Each structure stands twice: as structure tokens, then as C-alpha cells.
From TrEMBL:
GO molecular function annotation: carboxylic ester hydrolase activity; S-formylglutathione hydrolase activity
Domain of life: Bacteria
Record key words, sorted: Hydrolase, Serine esterase
Descriptive protein name: S-formylglutathione hydrolase
Known EC number: 3.1.2.12
InterPro entries linked to this entry: AB_hydrolase_fold (IPR029058), Esterase-like (IPR000801), S-formylglutathione_hydrol (IPR014186)
Catalytic reaction list: S-formylglutathione + H2O = formate + glutathione + H(+)
One Pfam family named in its UniProt record: Esterase
């Protein structure tokens, strides 16, 4: 069993907010994650929600800024967040840009050197971290949902589409819907996956839908005043892909809201209620 170092524990709405570090065999370096255990977890295994954060974030960002613990405590949901990339890999230039490298792992397994040695966030989440949560926390493995924001919204959608047996509910805030078509995605994918766009398709939500991948239901919230709406996110491409595929989608636009955690914190309660209903 993986040895966890507990970095800190905090009482929160009757439950426990914990921050952890462990030597990751998948990443080949230490990784950090955090878990909110609701009060119900003292008595029995509870459903779990993985939250994947966006560019520049860490395992702390959502737990500190989203205000989700109040709702998780009411609904009996465990929350899990992880860092957004490996750190201190020694790769030259890893921290030069905020939208690539450290803090920008894009929730995939890189195939190109030098990134392929450590940048393996897909396997980290779907295998190692999932196993840690199931084995070392009071988590119900048959009721695991996933959601995320921006780069993490892309991660949640693509992992849910690629691993329908592992993730039983999915939603997103302002996701990058078509990374193969936007500058953030093109920059990351060309370095992590190589120059051939054909190799990017398994990590693009619209391409996965076109290829026949499906999820039972999908909730997406998007602010109209999002500074990245027209340059990076392309929710209209998601809508078109879902329409063409016959994929259920509830896409809600919100006047005035931007890309920030003020937007996330406004709607996070509704996302937790949605997942609780989906997970049963
Ligand atoms: N540093 C950048 C802004 C970076 C940013 O907005 N990051 C978002 C996610 S963007 C897509 O994945 C975020 O969640 N930031 C954390 C936060 O606390 O807001 C810049 O200078 O524009």
C-alpha cells in the first residue's frame, strides 16, 4: 500500500480537510493531493467526486476557493483534488510559461521526450490516485464522479469519455472543449503528444464524441464574460459535437460571469447536487 505523508488536517463543516503527499510510481516523483471527507464518512463509505483544476492551479486551489465543502458535507460527498502536473522534473523550461509544463499537465500521458518520463497525469488519476482513494479512504468505488474547470474541464470530459467504467457522473465549468483547435491545446499537445494532430484526437472531447464515445449525462456551466470564451474554450463546438452524436448535454450560459473561482463558487453547489443525484 502506498505510504501517505499527511501534510495537514483541518476540521471543516463536521468533516476533515486533508492534504497529502506520496512517492508516485506512475509519475516517478512525489505528488500532492487533497481529500475532503464529509461527516458521513465516519460511519460508511461515501460517493467520491474528483475535481480537476485548471492552468496554474494546485491541489489546494479548489479546496480553498470554491467553497464546496459546505455542500459536500450536506450531501455526503468526498472531494478529491490533485496537483495539475508533476513538479521539479528537471526538464529545462518546465516553469517558463504558465500555460505549458508545470501547472499545465493537461491530464494526459505524454508520449514525447522529455515529457513522457513524468508527465503521466492520465494514468496517475485513473490508476494510482484512484487506488489510493479506494484503499485508504472510506470511498465507494462504484460511485465515483469527475468534474473540473477549464483545462480541468477538458480533463474531466476526456477521462469520463475514455473511462466510462471508472467515472459514473461528469460535469464541467468553462471547459476547454476542443483543445486540438485552440492555442492552449495546440501548444501543449504538440509538445506532449508530437506534431501529428491525428495523435491528439484521443484527448479532444469533440473528437472523442465523433469517434463514438459517450457518457450518460453532461452538465456544463459557462460564463458569458469569460475572458477565454472565444479564444480557448469553444463551447459551441461541444454543443455541435453533442448534437451530432446524440449525446445528452445541459449547457448553461450565465450573463456577467467570468472564468474565475467567483464563477465556480456560485454554481458549485448545483454541480454537487447534480453528481449526488447521478451517483445515487
Ligand atoms: N496566469 C494567467 C491566468 C491563469 C488562469 O486564469 N488560470 C485559471 C485556469 S485557466 C484554464 O485552465 C485558474 O483556475 N486560475 C486559478 C485561480 O485561482 O483563479 C494569466 O495571467 O492570465
Amino acid at each position: 500500500m502506498t505510504a501517505l505523508e499527511t501534510r495537514s488536517l483541518h476540521h471543516c463543516f463536521g468533516g476533515i480537510q486533508g492534504y497529502y503527499q506520496h512517492p508516485s510510481t506512475v509519475i516517478g516523483l512525489p505528488m500532492r493531493f487533497s481529500v475532503y471527507q464529509p461527516p458521513q464518512a465516519k460511519d460508511h463509505a461515501v460517493p467520491v467526486l474528483f475535481f480537476l483544476a485548471g492552468l496554474t492551479c494546485t491541489e489546494e486551489t479548489f479546496m480553498i476557493k470554491a467553497g464546496a465543502q459546505r455542500y459536500a458535507a450536506e450531501l455526503g460527498l468526498m472531494l478529491v483534488t490533485m496537483d495539475t502536473s508533476p513538479r521539479q522534473t528537471g526538464i529545462p523550461g518546465e516553469t517558463d510559461a504558465w500555460d505549458f509544463g508545470a501547472g499545465a499537465g493537461f491530464y494526459l500521458d505524454a508520449t514525447q521526450t522529455p515529457w513522457s518520463k513524468h508527465y503521466r497525469m492520465e494514468s496517475y488519476i485513473t490508476q494510482e490516485l484512484r487506488n489510493i482513494i479506494i484503499e485508504q479512504f472510506p470511498a465507494d468505488p462504484n460511485r465515483i464522479g469527475i468534474f473540473g474547470h477549464s483545462m480541468g474541464g477538458h480533463g474531466a470530459l476526456t477521462l469520463a469519455l475514455r473511462y466510462p467504467d471508472l467515472f459514473h457522473s461528469v460535469s464541467a465549468f468553462a471547459p476547454i472543449c476542443a483543445p486540438i483547435r485552440c492555442p492552449w491545446g495546440q501548444k501543449a499537445f504538440s509538445h506532449y503528444l508530437g506534431e501529428n494532430p491525428q495523435d491528439w484526437q484521443p484527448y479532444d472531447t469533440t473528437a472523442l464524441l465523433q469517434a463514438g464515445h459517450r457518457i450518460p449525462n453532461l452538465l456544463v456551466d459557462q460564463g458569458f464574460n469569460d475572458q477565454f470564451l472565444t479564444t480557448q474554450l469553444f463551447p459551441e463546438a461541444l454543443e455541435q459535437a453533442c448534437d451530432a452524436a446524440g449525446q445528452q448535454l445541459t449547457l448553461r450560459y450565465h450573463q456577467g460571469y467570468d472564468h474565475s473561482y467567483y464563477f465556480i463558487s456560485t454554481f458549485v453547489g448545483e454541480h454537487l447536487q447534480y453528481h449526488r443525484a447521478q451517483l445515487g
